[in-house]
Request: fold
Amino acid sequence: MSTAENPTGTPGRDPGSKTRDRQTRRTKRALLAAADEIFAEGRVPTVADVAERADVARATAYRYFPTQETLLLETTFLGNSGPIGSPSELVNEIKDPSERVAEAARRAAAWTLDREARLRTILRMSLEHESVQRPARRRHYIAQLLGDIETEIPADAYERLTGSLTLLFGIDPIISIRDNSDIPPDRIPDLLAWAAHVLVRSALEDSQPPSKRRQTTRHP
Reply:
C-alpha cells in the first residue's frame, strides 16, 4: 500500500475502520439501553421496539440482533461497568480470592434480582426453544476471578471449584432459592456470597499439606 493510499505511511488497519468500530459499539449500546428502558416499563422488547426507541433504522437493528431471542440474550450480560465491575478490577480491589469471589457473587446476585423478571423470561425461552442458547459467560468470568490461584490448586480440584461456582451466578440460583425457601430477596446476595467464600476457602485449604491444613483449622 502506498502512502497515498495510507496517509499514515505505515501498514495496518484503515483509520476509517476504527471510526466504524466505535460507531458500531455506540449503536449496539444504544439498542441495549433502549431494551433496558422497555424492560423497566414492564414490557418485553422486540427488535423493532428497540430500533424505534433508539432512533436506529430497523434494518440496522436487525443486523445487530437478527431475532428477539438474540436481543434478549444480550441483555443478560453483566457487563464490565456499574456495580458489577470487571474481573480484573475485582482482582486488583480484593486480594483475598475467597473474599473476591464472594463479593463478585454478591454483586452479581443483586444485579440479577433487579432484573429477575426479564431473566426468568429469557430462561424460559431458552428451555422452550432449542435454537435459543444462553451464552456460557459465567465460566470465563469465574476463571478470570481465580486466575491468580489456578496453579495453587490441583487440576481436578480446580475443575470442581469452578464448576461448583457456576451454580452461584445467573438467574438459576435466584430461582431455586426464591421458589424453594423462605429467605427474603434482600438476603440472597449475602447467602450466595457466603457459599462462594466457603467453596474457594475449602478448595485452597484442601490443597495444602495436611500439617498446614490442621494449623489453619485451629487458627482460622
About this structure: The chain has two domains: 15-74, 87-218. The longest helix spans residues 15-40.
